[in-house]
Write a structure and sequence with these properties.
The protein is α+β, with helices and mostly antiparallel strands. The protein is built from three helices and 14 strands.
Length: about 270
Amino acid sequence: MDYDYQLNQLLLSADSEIWIIEKYGYQQLFIYEWLKRLFAWQLGDYAEQFVDQFYGRPGDLLYRWGDPATYLGPDASDLRTSFGQHGVNWIKRNDLYGYRLPRNVGVGNILFFNNGFPGGSLVQEIAPPIRRNGSYVQPAYGQPFEPGDAVWEHGSSDSVSPFLSSAQRLPTGNTLITAGTTGTMLEVTMEGTVVWKYVCPVANTSPTDPGTKANDDIVLAFDEPIPPAGFGGAGANMVFRAKRYSPNYRGFRRKDLSPMGELIGVPAPF
């Protein structure tokens, strides 16, 4: 889930779809209720319908993408484009991690990890069609929401994950990808070149045991094979998601960020 305070909208991953929902604050709710009362004396029972049409109902579903069969019926199932996606987020000018992104790296678009895309996982970026007034273009009757294709995508053997995972656009235009079930983090350019890659060396030796605790974790040697987690084809070094923070991130102020050595090849510090 993501939130854009300027648009006052929520971005959600809803099973096989991506949704954008209008978020109402107290002020908007007050105006909504006031307008209903204002028009009630003229329109009676139709006042709420009138206000909904011209002002919008709180929590309106503004945009959806990924599985047209959910609103067009089963005949549109072959148009499905999202499959159990994770990490859906807006590419923002000022992100949550202390970065200020230039506009030419996809600011305003939506980035996500499309886990179950046929043929392998894909990291995709889509550009929802938006009118000049900021509203989303609605499809014609019987047609799916646009766009039909992603404006950018990346897929490789290093970025396959049936669940978990995330993606983050960086100021350089590169994308930080987390393939959650293999504990793999990699940064790729817009052309798809991998500029660095890191595999989490911390593995849980018994993740399926009910009494598993942190001290069951081990740090694998560089060439040591990763044990399986015991479910979903995942490795025992699973990572939910990874984000890169700017050195200027406010949470780092007055913090000692000195390197503390390598994690690989040393006992787990917990």
